[in-house]
Design brief:
With 178 residues, the chain is mostly helical. The protein has 9 helices and no strands. 68% of the residues lie in helices and 0% in strands. The radius of gyration is 17 Å and the shape is globular.
Length: 178
């Protein structure tokens, strides 16, 4: 195994960048396609979700590097399974879906605990799950690809630029609304 390719710094940084990018892009797509502004303001979600124009929601992507680091720590600990196998990205995706989405310890929407303990009912497994499963899929595939192909320098440049844009835009939006 190439130690540099699977170093903690390599996996942490790449996972953090990819998580932030996929969170940002899937969020924009879902926000546009699934009319989150109306969904969050009415019905069962209105008592659970903040309005989409709330400053914390606008700043949501700014918290994603921290989550990316947490994912990166787990990916690093499981690097032999996730990155040295042909279908390691699939193992990562299944792990994220089963442990991070469906089996959370908290009663999150879309989780088994959320189904049992919240009043959201079966509607919690709505269109938003497409966003969540899709983001986990992209995180798995793109991180696997980037970690296993460090020789493709263009990836670092493209991902770095999109990462920076993804962090600058919400900051600008928050400054404009102040």
């Amino acid at each position: 195994m190439n130690e540099n390719k699977y170093s903690i710094w390599s996996i942490l940084s790449k996972t953090t960048v990819i998580h932030t990018i996929t969170y940002f892009l899937m969020g924009i797509i879902a926000f546009t396609l699934f009319n989150y502004t109306e969904e969050f303001a009415s019905g069962a979600l209105s008592g659970y979700m903040r309005p989409t124009d709330h400053p914390m929601v606008m700043a949501g992507v700014l918290f994603q590097p921290l989550r990316g680091i947490l994912f990166g720590v787990v990916f690093f600990l499981l690097r032999d399974i996730l990155f040295s196998r042909k279908n390691g990205w699939l193992i990562a995706w299944i792990m994220l879906v089963f442990v991070g989405i469906l089996s959370t310890f908290g009663a999150a929407p879309g989780s088994i605990e959320g189904f049992v303990y919240t009043k959201l009912g079966i509607s919690q497994f709505g269109l938003g799950m497409i966003e969540v499963f899709g983001q986990a899929f992209l995180l798995s595939v793109l991180t696997y690809q980037w970690v296993n192909h460090p020789e493709k320098k263009w990836q670092g440049w493209v991902y770095g630029i999109v990462f920076a844009i993804g962090l600058i835009l919400p900051v600008m939006g928050l400054l404009v609304t102040q």
